[in-house]
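User: Fold this; tokens only.

Assistant: Input:
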Amino acid sequence: MFDMDEQGQKAVEDVQGLLRPHQLKIAHLPLKDANECLMAGQGDAIIRAIYDAKEYRPDGIINAADMADSFFSDDTEAESYAYPWCAGLNKLTHGIRKGEMVLFTAGTGIGKSTAVREIAYKLKMLDGMKIGMVMLEENYKKTMRELLSIHVKRPLSLIWGSIDKNELQKPYEEVFGDGKILLYDHFGSLESDNLLDKIRYLIVGEGCDFVVFDHISIAVSGMDDGQDERKTIDKLMTNLRSLVEETGAGMIVISHLKKTNGDKSFEEGGMISLDDLRGSGSLKQIPDEIIALERNQQAEQEVDRNNIKIRLLKNRFAGDTGLCGYLHYDKSIHRLLGEDETCEF
């Protein structure tokens, strides 16, 4: 029986390792200590505290036998939101969910950023989600142009100098007017703590349901932690995962690949595995899903250069993995489409 003040409760932690498991029970008093109970005429409370003492268990340790009421009364289920294309991917993953981390990877220039912008656009425009865009490989105006390009089905970055901007006022309001897309102006600010603080603010302060983080390698290059790349990636991924667990937001992360040792590079359509992720084992251990995009950007035929295989490398939610569909970049409308699909939004 310890005092109920701060020092008394600290003493519980100090002695908890002195006894073997199941031999330590802690009594809880209604007042500071036994003497105060006696002085207040509550001597019987001391006796009750002794008989009602609970077995000590450190914070964070629970016994499943004690959780039946809580377990069966919890009807919450993570709502899934379909990916914007490819029935095969949605069938295997059951969509994308808040409270999970999804990692996209591919060779250089294959279309990772294009794909995650399509996902962000769909989550915002069709599912009503609030989206935070942390796009370290491009400035925020580029991100806005690309999102607006998806909406108007035109490559705005290529025709920006010649287009009549008045034509874009209404589409701009449709995409950005409700304030549900937040962007990070990262110029000169890639330090670890600063970057993580900004992501936390997007989720906690602005209420973003999903954050898109593009990409790990650039973030790591701006973090001067006095550590090697592997340890820096481990730290960053662990911190990002902690944010997901703490806040319940969804996170879409982009990572690069190692240079292949095989006959065919990833830029020529080489098949991707988990071991091809560049930098750290945490990249394949921490995410809930890992999705790889494969494309031969050097193919002789243009139609082949614009075709992308979707390979699911990890699927913690449902377990199934493997080749699950194809995408095609339609230059005429500046969109990624699933196989045999037309652009419906």
